[in-house]
């Protein structure tokens, strides 16, 4: 979640304060990690990185902070693995996008798709839905892993 993704540290802190919450050292550490990250981070990864800003932070505090940020609509949790057990977090301010998870190397690639956006709009019109969230995640092998996985053959 870089500044380009619309999640500057200052903006995140402002959202938290506008909700009437104090800016504790632990919250500031979590927000700093989220604002500076270019990757999809799990709570454990956020905790590991947040300890560089506040050595006293514990994993339970990270989970509570993430829950608060989710309730405020600041972040979105994402399940990007086949089993859905591991959650990753990203800014809710990001433009609509989709994810591809490589089953070989585990890399998560974000992409935008006019085709998927059109399908979403068509489904909403056809069925009278007011879609607030759509979670579409593709899984497979990235180009590099596909070559390794198929012995050099690509499909």
Structural class assignment: alpha+beta
- Name of the top-level CATH class of the largest domain: Mainly Alpha
What radius of gyration results from the CA coordinates? 18 Å
Q: What value does the average pLDDT take?
A: 84
CATH architecture of the largest domain: Orthogonal Bundle
CATH topology of the largest domain: Arc Repressor Mutant, subunit A
Description:
By secondary structure, the protein is an alpha+beta fold. It folds into 2 domains: 1-94, Arc Repressor Mutant, subunit A (Orthogonal Bundle), CATH 1.10.10.10; 95-155, Ferric-uptake regulator, C-terminal dimerisarion domain (Dna Ligase, domain 1, 2-Layer Sandwich). Helices cover 41% and strands 15% of the residues. It contains 6 helices and 5 strands, in the order H-H-H-H-E-E-E-E-H-E-H. The protein has a 3-stranded mixed beta sheet, with no helix packed on it. A hairpin with a 7-residue loop joins strand 1 and strand 2. Helix 2 (25-36) packs across helix 3 (43-50). The chain is globular. It starts with 8 loop residues before the first helix and ends in a 6-residue tail after the last helix. The relative contact order is 0.12. Mean pLDDT is 84; it is low at 1-6.
Give a concise summary.
With 155 residues, the chain is α+β, with helices and mostly antiparallel strands. It has helices spanning 9-18, 25-36, 43-50, 59-71, 114-127, 143-149; strands spanning 75-79, 87-91, 98-102, 108-111, 137-140.
Layout of secondary structure:
Layout: H1 9-18, H2 25-36, H3 43-50, H4 59-71, E1 75-79, E2 87-91, E3 98-102, E4 108-111, H5 114-127, E5 137-140, H6 143-149
Parallel strand pairs: 3-5
Antiparallel strand pairs: 1-2, 3-4
């Amino acid at each position: 979640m870089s500044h380009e993704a619309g999640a500057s540290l200052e903006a995140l802190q402002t959202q938290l304060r506008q909700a009437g919450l104090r800016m504790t050292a632990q919250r500031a550490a979590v927000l700093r990690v989220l604002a500076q990250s270019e990757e999809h981070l799990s709570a454990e990864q956020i905790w590991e990185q947040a300890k560089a800003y506040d050595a006293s932070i514990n994993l339970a505090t990270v989970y509570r902070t993430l829950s608060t940020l989710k309730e405020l609509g600041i972040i979105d949790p994402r399940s990007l693995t086949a089993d859905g057990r591991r959650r990753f977090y990203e800014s809710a301010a990001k433009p609509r996008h989709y994810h591809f998870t490589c089953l070989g190397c585990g890399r998560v690639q974000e992409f935008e798709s006019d085709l998927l956006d059109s399908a979403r709009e068509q489904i909403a019109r056809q069925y009278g839905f007011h879609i607030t969230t759509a979670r579409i995640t593709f899984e497979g092998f990235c180009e590099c892993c596909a070559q390794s996985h198929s012995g050099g053959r690509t499909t």
